[in-house]
């Protein structure tokens, strides 16, 4: 009798294991693969204070970027240009609270990096969109936008993964970057990197689509990025979700996520080669990029100044705009020069 019970228990365990494997293999395939419906006409998405710029990538075709610009009062011909680069899942509206005060210093340009905000939602394919979410493509789009808008040299202001892009631009095109303002730059990535064959599995593709929909619908990173989520008003939440108005946004987000699963962040190994003057800022309550990681990045840069802002999270430009502008103004007034080895992280 005992043997029979043990045999039945073994059969039950095997059955549970088999069912678990079947569920793992088949379950993701039940996720609806049809992309989100929405607007496809740029004209219908126009908003006060921003517009759309078509840029032609080197391999042909055109990508439409959602761009907001502020210019200084009076003659701003000699004033510097600031280009604002948002982070993962966010858009140009993350900079709203510092664009006007920053425009007192010079021309300010912010844009939605694809596939976020109201910029294009390309999918990987042939021609111009063969690999739209490679790091090299993001860098090429930034440089092409600067050329299109007639910007020869700019301060790059980057938050999180936007800080990563700013650093890569300073490394590849130092003559185009006058200075860097890095708010919690995403430098020391600890996420796993998966083999391409695993990412290409239909199950992984569907799970990636589900993750994209969760991140883009519920916007959980917005709350997590604040030290005090109670500071987020409904207008800010609405602006964070403007991508939902566009068709195929979820498929485009999923394509970016899939690319990131095989694309490691390697800029940390090259920081010592970037001598562009840099202001590196962390929020003391940042739960996404630990302040210690941001301090380490500042110390690795040859010409960096470090600042920690109390009571601020991962989006200090939103949560603590006055503190951010105070430290930027102080840094700009010091006007560090490229290659000046006097500056050090402190």
TrEMBL record:
<dbReference type="Pfam" id="PF00561">
    <property type="entry name" value="Abhydrolase_1"/>
</dbReference>
<feature type="domain" description="AB hydrolase-1">
    <location>
        <begin position="80"/>
        <end position="319"/>
    </location>
</feature>
<dbReference type="InterPro" id="IPR029058">
    <property type="entry name" value="AB_hydrolase_fold"/>
</dbReference>
<dbReference type="InterPro" id="IPR000639">
    <property type="entry name" value="Epox_hydrolase-like"/>
</dbReference>
<protein>
    <recommendedName>
        <fullName>AB hydrolase-1 domain-containing protein</fullName>
    </recommendedName>
</protein>
<dbReference type="InterPro" id="IPR000073">
    <property type="entry name" value="AB_hydrolase_1"/>
</dbReference>
């Amino acid at each position: 009798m005992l043997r029979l019970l043990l045999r039945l228990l073994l059969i039950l365990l095997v059955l549970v294991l088999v069912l678990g494997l079947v569920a793992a293999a088949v379950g993701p395939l039940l996720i609806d693969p049809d992309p989100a419906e929405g607007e496809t006409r740029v004209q219908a998405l126009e908003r006060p204070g921003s517009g759309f710029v078509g840029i032609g990538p080197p391999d042909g075709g055109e990508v439409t970027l959602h761009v907001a610009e502020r210019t200084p009062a009076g003659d701003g011909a000699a004033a510097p240009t600031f280009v604002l680069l948002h982070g993962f899942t966010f858009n140009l509206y993350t900079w709203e609270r510092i664009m006007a005060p920053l425009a007192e210093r010079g021309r300010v340009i912010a844009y939605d990096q694809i596939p976020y905000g109201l910029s294009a939602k390309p999918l990987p394919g042939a021609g111009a969109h063969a690999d739209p979410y490679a790091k090299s493509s993001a860098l090429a789009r930034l440089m092409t936008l600067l050329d299109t808008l007639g910007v020869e040299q700019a301060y790059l202001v980057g938050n999180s993964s936007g800080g990563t892009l700013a650093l890569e631009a300073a490394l590849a095109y130092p003559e185009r970057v006058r200075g860097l303002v890095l708010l919690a730059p995403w430098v020391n990535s600890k996420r796993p990197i998966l083999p391409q064959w695993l990412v290409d599995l239909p199950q992984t593709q569907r799970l990636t689509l589900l993750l994209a929909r969760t991140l883009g619908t519920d916007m959980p990173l917005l709350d997590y990025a604040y030290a005090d989520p109670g500071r987020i008003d409904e207008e800010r939440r609405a602006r964070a979700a403007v991508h939902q108005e566009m068709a195929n946004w979820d498929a485009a987000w999923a394509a970016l996520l899939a690319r990131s699963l095989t694309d490691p962040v390697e800029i940390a190994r090259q920081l010592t080669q970037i001598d562009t003057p840099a202001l590196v800022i962390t929020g003391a309550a940042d739960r996404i990029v630990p302040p210690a990681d941001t301090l380490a990045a500042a110390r690795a840069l040859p010409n960096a100044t470090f600042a920690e802002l109390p009571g601020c999270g991962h989006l200090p430009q939103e949560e603590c705009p006055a503190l951010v502008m105070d430290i930027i103004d102080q840094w700009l007034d010091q006007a560090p020069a490229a290659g000046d080895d006097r500056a050090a992280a402190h």
